[in-house]
Write a structure and sequence with these properties.
By secondary structure, the chain is an all-alpha fold. Helices cover 79% and strands 0% of the residues. It has 3 helices and no strands. α1 (4-48) packs antiparallel against α3. The longest helix has 45 residues, at 4-48. It is rod-shaped, with a radius of gyration of 25 Å. The two termini are 33 Å apart. The model has no long low-confidence stretch (mean pLDDT 78).
Amino acid sequence: MRSSDVQFAEIMNRSKAVKEQRLLKKKITIDGIAIALLVVLLVVVSRTIPMLKDTTTEVAEQHYGSLYLVTPNLGYVMIGLVAFVLGICVTILCMHLKKWKKEVH
């Protein structure tokens, strides 16, 4: 029969393992949601950029690239903002993955 100290230590270790598993599931869920939001943001921005063109001046029949033909500065600003936001999100995701790898090992 084991002593009560050994049993208590095992209970505490198991409790810690369960808490770590819950935290890992929570992190994976948050990272998955962040990736899904990034994809949605990318799709929404890629769909709205052609709508930002000037409707009074019809430059091209197709909407692809027409934002740059009508107002080139607006296009550069939009692309810059999207790249900046995606860069921030990827950096945060990489930091979470690095932290997670350190905690697992």
